[in-house]
Structures are given as C-alpha cells and as structure tokens.
C-alpha cells in the first residue's frame, strides 16, 4: 500500500496581496528555485478562485514563511500557466442560515453531507452569527454549473436557506417576467418634414414621393381666358436649340437629386456599420472585466 503524501502548509499570494495558507500534499521536488516542491491542494482557498482543491502547483522557499505560490499578477485568462495539473474544479461561494430551532452545527453538517453526495467539496469559512449568515466555499466539478448545484442542494430539503454569492446568480431573462409591469417599447423617431426624399433611419430605403397630379385634376382647372389664349397662340415658338438646353438642364437637376439620395443612403449605412463595430469592441472589453471580477472573493 502506497504511503500517503505528507501534508504541509503552503502560502498562496498575488504579488503580496490575497495571501492565505492552505494545506497541501507534498508530491516531491519540482523545477524552479532551489528547494521548490510540487504540491496538491487539499483545501478550498478563500482568496483565490484558482488554484483550488485538487489542483497541483509549484511552491518555492521564501526568506520567511511557508513555501509560496505567487500568481505574479497573471491575468485570469492565463491562470492555467501557473498551475501544473488542473484538478478539474472551480470555486463557488454560498451563504446559509439555519432553519428555526436548528443549531448552526447541525445545519452545516447537513449541508456538507448533501455536498458530498453531489461530488462537491465543501469547506466552511465561518458559522452563522446572530443575524449574519454562515458561509461555505465549494470546489465544484467542471461538468456541473452553478444552477445545477443550487437545484440539487435545494432538492435535498436541508434544514437551512441557501444564498448563492459567487458566481452571481443569473438575473431575469425571457422566462421570468414581472407581473403588472408593461415593458417600455421605444417609440420610433418622427420623420422630418422636407421636400427632399427622406432616408429611413433603419432600412435606408427612400420614402415614396406623392404621385403627380392626374389628367383629371388638370381638367378641373379653369379655362384660359380667350384673350390670353389668343396671345399665347400668336407668341412665336421657342427655338429648338433653347428647348434642348432646357431639357438638358432638367436632366442635370434630376441627376443631382439621385446622387444626393445615394449619398444620404451611403452615409446612413456607414453610421450603422460604425455603431455596430463599436458595440462589438465594448462587448469584448466587458467580457474581460467580467472574468477578472469573478476571480475575486472575500
């Protein structure tokens, strides 16, 4: 029968901050500074989401204190580079309050047993005190999500109430509604009154202009007085060269209108593309800050 590795105290820190001293199994010498050891954690750290229970890391001697693992300011996305062997678990934090007439120790014992049945490593941080809840830290297998963990613990009918602290519970989605509250629907902006073709803000399609007056409407016009009609008949015809120039001028004005509409449509499309690219950049930044926040624990 193989001898169980020796238990030793180690120190976890991040450039001098978030320092704590969990227990670990000593697995022997490791590469690094002289005296470095490879160790496997047997506690669920309170100040570090990773490493956690079951993870193997390298600790090195320091001038004063226990052999130390230093995160060294590594970003959360690169934390795996500071772990020799990932034990396949992530950290979860729960608060609990015992039911009425239930002792705090009995409540914790019931919770620990329920966690053990679900392959969850449960470690108490502090017991309930007066009106303050107790707190436990869990090392959860990677194949279980926070929602599943909460569902299974609640279904165990424990003599206590549970509150999920980390990760933060998901807030109301499509399936959850607020009774008696009508969601606000944004109103479409009013279109400006103008004689030029209007470019729709969403589709950039030009709005149809009113149809030209029909012949029937023209027929309703009052007749031209005889004297004016006669004068118009006696007026000499416009030379063909001038008529051609007028037609060319009209065609030129029409062409400018079409180019104006095309320019407005192009500008609207560019604004939509620019706003979409800015939204994507903000989403990526938000994702980075969200993972950094999840790494912090009390």
| Intertermini distance | 40 Å
**Radius of gyration over C-alpha positions, nearest whole angstrom:** 38 Å
**Percent of residues in helices:** 25-40%
Give the amount of beta strand, in percent: 15-25%
The overall pLDDT average reads 73
Give the class from helix and strand content and strand pairing.
alpha+beta
| Number of separate strands | 11
What order do the strands of the largest sheet run in, or round the barrel if closed? 1-4-5-6
In quaternary terms, these chains amount to single chain
Number of helices: 5
Coarse morphology: elongated
Main beta sheet: 4 strands, antiparallel
- Which fold does the CATH topology of the domain at 89-170 refer to? Alpha-Beta Plaits
In sequence order, what are the helices and strands, one letter per element? EEEEEEEEHEEHEHHH
Tell me what the CATH architecture of the domain at 89-170 is: 2-Layer Sandwich
Unreliable residue runs: 173-190, 192-210, 213-219, 222-298
CATH level 1 name of the domain at 89-170: Alpha Beta
């Amino acid at each position: 029968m193989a001898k169980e590795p020796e238990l030793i105290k180690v120190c976890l820190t991040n450039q001098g901050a978030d320092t704590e001293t969990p227990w670990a199994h000593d697995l022997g010498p490791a590469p690094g500074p002289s005296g470095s050891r490879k160790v496997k954690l047997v506690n669920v750290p309170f100040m570090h989401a990773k490493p956690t229970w079951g993870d193997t890391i390298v600790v090195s001697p320091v001038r004063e204190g226990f052999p130390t693992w230093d995160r060294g300011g590594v970003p959360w996305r690169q934390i795996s580079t500071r772990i020799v062997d990932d034990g396949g678990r992530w950290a979860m934090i729960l608060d609990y309050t015992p039911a009425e007439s239930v002792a705090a120790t009995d409540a914790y014992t019931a919770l620990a047993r329920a966690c053990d049945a679900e392959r969850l490593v449960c470690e108490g941080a502090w017991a309930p005190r007066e009106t303050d809840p107790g707190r436990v830290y869990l090392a959860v297998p990677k194949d279980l999500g926070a929602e599943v963990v909460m569902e299974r613990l609640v279904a165990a009918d424990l003599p206590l109430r549970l509150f999920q602290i980390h990760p933060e519970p998901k807030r109301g989605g499509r399936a959850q509604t607020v009774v008696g509250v009508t969601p606000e629907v944004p109103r479409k902006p009013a279109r400006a009154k103008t004689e030029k073709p209007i470019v729709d803000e969403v589709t950039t399609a030009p709005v149809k202009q009113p149809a030209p007056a029909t012949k029937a409407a023209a027929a309703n016009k009052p007749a031209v007085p005889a004297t004016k009609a006669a004068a118009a008949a006696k007026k000499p015809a416009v030379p063909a060269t001038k008529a051609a120039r007028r037609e060319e001028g009209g065609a030129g004005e029409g062409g400018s209108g079409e180019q104006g509409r095309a320019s407005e449509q192009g500008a609207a499309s560019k604004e939509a593309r620019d706003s979409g690219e800015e939204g994507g950049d903000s989403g990526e930044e938000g994702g980075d800050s969200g993972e950094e926040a999840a790494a912090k624990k009390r």
